[in-house]
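Meet today's protein:

…
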Amino acid sequence: MPQQKTMVSVPELMLEIAPDAAEALRASDLLPGEPAVLPVRATYFDTPDRDLATAGFTLSLTEGESEGETARVQTVRATGSTADLFVLPEWRQPVAADRPVLDERTPLCTLPPAKIAEIGPLFGLCLRRQLWTLSWQGADIELALDRGEVTAADRRSARCELRLALRDGAPAALYALARRLDEIAPLRLGVLTEADHGFRLLGPVLHMHKAAPVALHRDMVAAEGFRAIGAACLRQFRLNEPLVDPANPEAVHQARVALRRLRSAFAIFRPMLQDETGPRLNRETRWLAGVLGEARDLDVLRMRCRPEALRARLEPARMAAYDQARGMLESRRARLLMLDLAEYLAIGPWTMQPSGAEIRGLPLREYASAALDRLRRKVKKDGIGLADVDDETRHELRKDAKKLRYAAEFFAPLYAEKRRRRRAARFLAALEALQDRMGALNDLAAAPALVERLGLAGDPAAAAILGTDRDKRNLIEAAAEAHEAFVDAKRFWR
């Protein structure tokens, strides 16, 4: 008879911490007594084609000392649609050898034998783990402070992280403890697992992170879809946040995209989020996007400036905007916003409100189709008579088109049939063209106020930035044509 799978779902919270902040935390009175110290040595396995990672799993062997002898534990961890920022399903079992055992106790036993034969070590982890058990707000929480490095081939990456694991009690205590820890030492929401660190070493160095497809599947309900989409947006933002720099303008752009996508998710799922916390977090997310907005606006203006002298005149304001943005990103307000958002996605009031129970339980594909229909009707209606409306109305159309595009990108994985995939590609292409034309119109409309604020209104070289009436007419005509093409594009969800 097959042995039962040793699967556990542990509520966890990963937090990034700087080495000096870790020392301050270690010296505080919050951590009681001397910690248990555990050397951790782990090896991660996959095929050369990363088949396990593609399937949404990681596979590792961890070595430790037990009663004077070396013991190995094999861990299979879900990283795809079966995992989120809060609960991480795992399958653990002891093994005797230094090779994985993929039997019926793991979800990987269904892999083709040829793929199992290709599995080999990819990267290693070596760190010193200090462990405390804390009682916080009636909950028992294990706090692990990890310091060490990940190695892959000839590349290394230092690690200093906290992990809070709930052993008993209410999940809200995890976030309450994280906020208290942040009062002592600055912490940031962690989105990179041990495996993520290793895979990043194996790949090229990235200077920005675009939105990845969200791991949605047809068996999900609406509540699960919102959680998965929100977690993907938080992950994209946190990956780009440390890369924000004047020499790397795409990072600030992608960080803003992540926040806009998150706000769009709040709007798309608004019927399900009938609580007071959601609107507050949406406002705070809008504030954070605005913090990055000035730097992004000046990056765009700089790209449109042809004379080098004019670009040089923009640099002081651009540097100041980046300094302000980075200062705000390092603020406690921004750090706690990420924790608040993660908590809201996992256990927010919306998850327990009786009034939203029916919507939360709707099949995600059913909810997605209705939401896409609603957003499409609005963009179709608002684009009528594009040449005869004012700049503000066109700006609203641009925002609605962007929201529809994000929704279509979020939900596209739910419609994986070949015919629907082709339709989705054509629909998104038409929507992207409309959004680009509307964005160019918006840049033209916003240019005079921006040029005035920067003190460039009297500079002849700035005239090209402001454009002409003919430029505006041409852009409106192009936008109207793009809107017609969008209306003609077939819906992939019907």
Q: What stands out?
A: The domain at 1-205 is CATH 2.40.320.10 (Hypothetical Protein Pfu-838710-001). The radius of gyration is 25 Å. The first strand starts at residue 7 and ends at 17.
